[in-house]
Specification:
By secondary structure, the chain is an all-alpha fold. 80% of the residues lie in helices and 0% in strands.
Length: 201
């Protein structure tokens, strides 16, 4: 039996940075994923694409579906920045199918926003609106007026892009009434004014 006792001052909390480094050394896919996020933030999309691709391969090898969904989502973001919309859609749809299987409604909603934005950038306004109307229904069912107002504002913008000022005005009026119900008088007036302006155009 040893009689040497570890001195009290040598006992302390684990260094969180060192613990994180040790964890990442054991999980290269996660390391690549986090590295890709940093590169993406800096605008280094080519390096981010490589990191997310490597992470995706690593997650696939481990059968980590959540990792595959996250890496696919981020690869979609990189493709959007590079204006490679077909590849972005493919990645978003892969992430979407995993989230749907897992019944992850929060992630599905986030992906729907991205896919609708992608369709809008491509000028496929009807496809974008179809997704946005599904989102309105979700926000209505979950009683989320903030989400509903955000999405309906985008729908009004899409109607304007399509040249349908009447429907855009109706949508702005609906947004105005939601704000009015929640005593957001200034916002209600702004959207009512937008509706009026469109009707007079």
């Amino acid at each position: 039996m040893s009689t040497s006792i570890q001195p009290m001052n040598s006992i302390g909390p684990v260094d969180p940075e060192k613990a994180r480094e040790d964890e990442l050394r054991k999980d290269p896919a996660k390391r690549d994923y986090l590295q890709g996020r940093e590169q993406f933030k800096k605008g280094d999309y080519n390096m981010a694409a490589m990191s997310f691709h490597n992470a995706l391969k690593g997650f696939e090898e481990k059968d980590d579906e959540q990792g595959v969904a996250n890496a696919s989502d981020r690869l979609g973001d990189v493709c959007m920045e590079k204006q490679d919309y077909a590849a972005a859609l493919e990645n978003y749809q892969r992430a979407y199918s995993i989230c749907e299987k897992e019944e992850d409604s929060f992630s599905i909603l986030a992906l729907n926003k991205k896919i609708a934005a992608l369709y809008r950038k491509q000028g496929e306004l009807d496809k974008a609106m179809e997704i946005l109307f599904d989102m309105v229904e979700h926000y209505h069912l979950t009683r989320n007026p903030k989400g509903m107002v955000e999405v309906m504002t985008v729908i009004a913008e899409l109607y304007r892009e399509k040249g349908d000022n009447s429907k855009a005005a109706d949508t702005y009026r609906t947004v105005s009434s939601i704000h009015k119900n929640f005593k957001h008088q200034r916002m209600a007036e702004e959207f009512a004014a937008l509706a009026e302006e469109l009707e007079q155009a």
